[in-house]
Amino acid sequence: MTTPCDMLVFGGTGDLALHKLLPALYYLHHEGRLHPQTRIIALARQARERDAFRALVERHCRAQVARADFDIDSWRDFAERLDYHAIDASQRADFDRLARRLGPAEGRVRVYYLATAPDLFEDIAAHLASAGLAGPEARIVLEKPIGHSLESARAINVAIGAVFDESRVFRIDHYLGKETVQNLMALRFANALFEPVWRAGHIDHVQISVSETLGVENRGSYYDHAGAMRDMVQNHLMQLLCLVAMEAPVRFDAESVRNEKLKILEALRPIAGLDVKDKTVRGQYGAGTIGGHDVPAYYFEKNVDNDSDTETFVAVQVDIDNWRWAGVPFYLRTGKRMAKKGSQILIQFKPVPHRLFEGGEANCLLIRLQPEERISVQLMAKSPGKGMRLTPVELDLNLAQAFPQKRRWDAYERLLLDVIEGDSTLFMRRDEVEAAWRWVDPILRGWQEHYQSPRPYAAGTSGPEQAHNLLERHGHAWLE
Ligand code: BG6
């Protein structure tokens, strides 16, 4: 069981809180991981009665939590912890009211989870400080994206840093809380098998691909200003890239892991000017069909500009300038309204140096993060019968089957527990976030300067043609 805690969620009635954070907290409660004195307080602008808020959360928990895990007694106890407090984040006086309502911390950890737009982060931190709510017991959680550029991210980091020292700042990237993403570290650093071949010389290229079938749902007004580069690449895909490419940390602790990730971010070859055209592809979905349903074009989505040129798809070739990875392209790709939902990492090895047999392909290691969690290695085997004909076969590890009795945790459950326990290993450090923006900013600028408007692709496909060309010219192809 964790330390007693006040969990305060700013943006407490938004999509993230209702769909992810509160159901995750319900699970933690249901499994006895929250201290009996832990309180959960949602904060948002609108005035609401506590009971109406609880009913709203119940509706969402019932929808998000597996039926077998939604226990009515458990829910009632959980609801007792839930409270609602109306606040205008721009009003200093509202924070004094909040302080009075909360009373003294009395040994509780105070977690402020900022599930709001990043332009409120600075105000909230400053007001928390001036209302005396940012003492040593307080921790702050920042949702991505942190800012919309290097400059804005720095300004946020400076403002937050003026109130909370770095050990109390938790920049969340929920991909790091995913079971398979952590398994990637187990695979690399707990098995001697892979390390000797995990480098240029043995690996031909790497693909990291995150496809979604969803569009922008109710988030059009945020997304239309962000786009896939800021929403997915700057954080989730770059974090995955770091975990694939980094050196083994000395210890599995926050500083050691993050030091190694930072070295990768600093070794990324900049993409700027005309290189942007050559190494990146941006796309935007048009109308199409997914799973038998017609879906509208992006620019017809709610709260999206009719002539929007925001990208909903990005493919990019990344080069890492260090000894381990010299000459090995990493291809990143993400898109909304693609044919299938799936996140995967493909490590494509080089062919054997000298062929003895007919046929045969190079080995590859495929790590599927979702929907299923699988790790498979493609090996060459002899086809039965006369002669030495080779056929690819798969060694396939399905993690859900390997641990059938274990419930798969949602990323937010783990990360919320880590915040309460003060463990920031799976969170982004300030310098990491800024290094990622330093690499992303010139690409965003290049798109603007060269008027690289997004290439259209029909919803329900694998993205624009140009994303395939990006690989084909090197003799590679996306694994679909
Ligand atoms: C979020 C993005 O961070 O990640 C969303 O803002 C995206 O646009 C989501 O849909 C994808 O997360 P997951 O866990 O469903 O792959």
From TrEMBL:
<feature type="binding site">
    <location>
        <position position="178"/>
    </location>
    <ligand>
        <name>substrate</name>
    </ligand>
</feature>
<comment type="function">
    <text>Catalyzes the oxidation of glucose 6-phosphate to 6-phosphogluconolactone.</text>
</comment>
<dbReference type="Pfam" id="PF02781">
    <property type="entry name" value="G6PD_C"/>
</dbReference>
<dbReference type="GO" id="GO:0004345">
    <property type="term" value="F:glucose-6-phosphate dehydrogenase activity"/>
</dbReference>
<keyword id="KW-0560">Oxidoreductase</keyword>
<dbReference type="GO" id="GO:0006006">
    <property type="term" value="P:glucose metabolic process"/>
</dbReference>
<keyword id="KW-0521">NADP</keyword>
<feature type="domain" description="Glucose-6-phosphate dehydrogenase NAD-binding">
    <location>
        <begin position="9"/>
        <end position="183"/>
    </location>
</feature>
<feature type="binding site">
    <location>
        <position position="341"/>
    </location>
    <ligand>
        <name>substrate</name>
    </ligand>
</feature>
<feature type="binding site">
    <location>
        <position position="174"/>
    </location>
    <ligand>
        <name>substrate</name>
    </ligand>
</feature>
<comment type="similarity">
    <text>Belongs to the glucose-6-phosphate dehydrogenase family.</text>
</comment>
<feature type="binding site">
    <location>
        <position position="212"/>
    </location>
    <ligand>
        <name>substrate</name>
    </ligand>
</feature>
<feature type="binding site">
    <location>
        <position position="144"/>
    </location>
    <ligand>
        <name>NADP(+)</name>
    </ligand>
</feature>
<dbReference type="InterPro" id="IPR001282">
    <property type="entry name" value="G6P_DH"/>
</dbReference>
<dbReference type="GO" id="GO:0050661">
    <property type="term" value="F:NADP binding"/>
</dbReference>
<feature type="binding site">
    <location>
        <position position="336"/>
    </location>
    <ligand>
        <name>substrate</name>
    </ligand>
</feature>
<dbReference type="InterPro" id="IPR022675">
    <property type="entry name" value="G6P_DH_C"/>
</dbReference>
<dbReference type="Pfam" id="PF00479">
    <property type="entry name" value="G6PD_N"/>
</dbReference>
<feature type="binding site">
    <location>
        <position position="231"/>
    </location>
    <ligand>
        <name>substrate</name>
    </ligand>
</feature>
<keyword id="KW-0119">Carbohydrate metabolism</keyword>
<feature type="binding site">
    <location>
        <position position="45"/>
    </location>
    <ligand>
        <name>NADP(+)</name>
    </ligand>
</feature>
<dbReference type="InterPro" id="IPR022674">
    <property type="entry name" value="G6P_DH_NAD-bd"/>
</dbReference>
<dbReference type="GO" id="GO:0009051">
    <property type="term" value="P:pentose-phosphate shunt, oxidative branch"/>
</dbReference>
<dbReference type="GO" id="GO:0005829">
    <property type="term" value="C:cytosol"/>
</dbReference>
<dbReference type="InterPro" id="IPR019796">
    <property type="entry name" value="G6P_DH_AS"/>
</dbReference>
<feature type="active site" description="Proton acceptor">
    <location>
        <position position="236"/>
    </location>
</feature>
<dbReference type="InterPro" id="IPR036291">
    <property type="entry name" value="NAD(P)-bd_dom_sf"/>
</dbReference>
<protein>
    <recommendedName>
        <fullName>Glucose-6-phosphate 1-dehydrogenase</fullName>
        <ecNumber>1.1.1.49</ecNumber>
    </recommendedName>
</protein>
<feature type="domain" description="Glucose-6-phosphate dehydrogenase C-terminal">
    <location>
        <begin position="185"/>
        <end position="478"/>
    </location>
</feature>
<keyword id="KW-0313">Glucose metabolism</keyword>
<comment type="pathway">
    <text>Carbohydrate degradation; pentose phosphate pathway; D-ribulose 5-phosphate from D-glucose 6-phosphate (oxidative stage): step 1/3.</text>
</comment>
